[in-house]
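re: the backbone from monday

yeah here it is again, tokenized this time
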């Protein structure tokens, strides 16, 4: 009788060891040929090389110690608040108080090897801590540029992120719902129960839900990222995801304002045109040179390609079945921010007081790459805008705050949320350094 030949345990261990060594060597190679600047601006170079085994380049966390980020010439940086736990997003109240969401991803379903690897990557990058699930109020009452008062405004939330104050209510984007509390600036504690405005799709990838009010206060806009990289979990999980939703808080009705945006995060109103702009994280595992992450003016009814295409019509052959019928309706983004830079925070310079060089444009926090070697991002930049409300032709981003990576490529911090405070200084939430930096003249 001929049976299956048993393999000794030592043989299997050798095979697993060889696979592990191969993966280690493969993921340590450089996968980028172009400089970041070549994949930045209004006309970036577009290249793709699909990675069957993704390049992994994690900047492991290390303490700041006595170091601090390096500001651009003519600027200085100080610590606005320290001792926070994964501070991710901020909003400025009318009285000058700052709200910060201390938050992280909720527990994620683990459906296979890819989910296990993603959890491991998050842990190595400093994003594996349990979510504090709270909003903290910070107050700089004496105006010295450092918050000397803090209070837990509300806790027991579900991975909160975006916040918007409007007409006596504080709206909060939990990962699974837009909720609201009665609130007046000056309060240091919310005790009233939350009111649900609308449910939001949650789970899997891209848990953040940013919220911004329209200039006239009649609508709210909510950014909802995709559940996957390229819809590999199935399109049924992507219902009302990879979109920006428009919400009427009075009637609790909502509609899709724009779609095809893999992971929109930062939202802000451009002051000249009045248009809604967003930062968007594009797809991974398509090579170190792209596709570029970007910022764009978001048009009502606009479709930006995800998952079938990117940058206005470059088809991603990994996504099946293909949808060539959508290409003629796909909008091209307005400004590339480089490959795998992970743009999050977005703040226009309307109220900033950082000098003439930072008078008209947008500040963007580049959280940093994991799927590119050499690393990209890990800094705050400024994109100059022209008189018509769009980035200046040919302009490249200007470094505002750097030094988040040390000389060995470890992350002392990672910039996330951005706001301009009541004095015109720029506040930068550092979710790995567990503090908020203040950039001023």
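seq for it, each position gets an aa:
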């Amino acid at each position: 009788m001929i049976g299956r030949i048993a393999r000794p345990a030592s043989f299997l261990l050798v095979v697993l060891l060889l696979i592990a060594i191969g993966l280690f060597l493969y993921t340590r190679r450089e996968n980028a040929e172009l400089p970041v600047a070549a994949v930045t601006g209004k006309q970036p170079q577009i290249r793709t090389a699909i990675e069957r085994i993704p390049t992994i380049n994690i900047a492991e966390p290390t303490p700041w110690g006595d170091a601090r980020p390096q500001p651009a010439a003519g600027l200085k940086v100080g610590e606005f608040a320290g001792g926070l736990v994964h501070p991710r997003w901020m909003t400025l109240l009318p009285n000058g108080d700052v709200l910060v969401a201390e938050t992280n991803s909720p527990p994620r379903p683990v459906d296979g090897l890819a989910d296990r690897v993603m959890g491991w990557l998050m842990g190595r990058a400093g994003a594996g801590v349990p979510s504090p699930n709270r909003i903290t109020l910070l107050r700089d009452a004496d105006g010295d540029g450092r918050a000397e008062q803090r209070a837990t405004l509300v806790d027991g939330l579900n991975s909160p992120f975006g916040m918007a104050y409007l007409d006596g209510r504080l709206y909060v984007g939990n990962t699974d719902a837009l909720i609201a509390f009665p609130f007046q600036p000056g309060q240091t504690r919310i005790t009233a129960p939350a009111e649900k405005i609308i449910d939001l799709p949650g789970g899997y990838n891209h848990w953040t839900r940013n919220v911004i009010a329209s200039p006239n206060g009649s609508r709210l806009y909510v950014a909802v990222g995709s559940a996957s990289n390229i819809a590999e979990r199935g399109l049924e999980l992507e219902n009302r995801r990879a979109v920006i939703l428009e919400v009427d808080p009075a009637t609790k009705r909502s509609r899709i304002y724009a779609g095809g945006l893999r992971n929109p995060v930062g939202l802000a109103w451009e002051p000249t045109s009045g248009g809604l702009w967003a930062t968007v994280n594009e797809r991974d595992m398509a090579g170190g040179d792209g596709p570029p992450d970007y910022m764009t003016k978001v048009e009502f009814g606009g479709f930006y390609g995800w998952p079938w295409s990117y940058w206005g019509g470059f088809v991603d052959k990994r996504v099946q079945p293909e949808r060539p019928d959508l290409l003629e309706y796909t909008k091209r983004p307005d400004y590339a921010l480089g490959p795998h830079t992970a743009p999050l925070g977005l703040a226009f310079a309307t109220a900033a007081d950082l000098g003439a060089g930072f008078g008209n444009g947008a500040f963007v926090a580049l959280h940093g790459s994991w799927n590119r070697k050499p690393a990209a991002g890990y800094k705050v930049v400024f994109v100059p805008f022209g008189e018509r409300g769009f980035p200046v032709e040919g302009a490249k981003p200007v470094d505002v705050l750097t030094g988040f990576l040390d000389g060995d490529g470890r992350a002392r911090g990672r910039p996330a949320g951005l706001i301009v405070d009541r004095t015109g200084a720029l506040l930068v939430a550092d979710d790995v350094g567990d503090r908020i930096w203040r950039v001023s003249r």
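Residues 98 and 389 are 28 Å apart (CA to CA). The chain has two helices and 28 strands.
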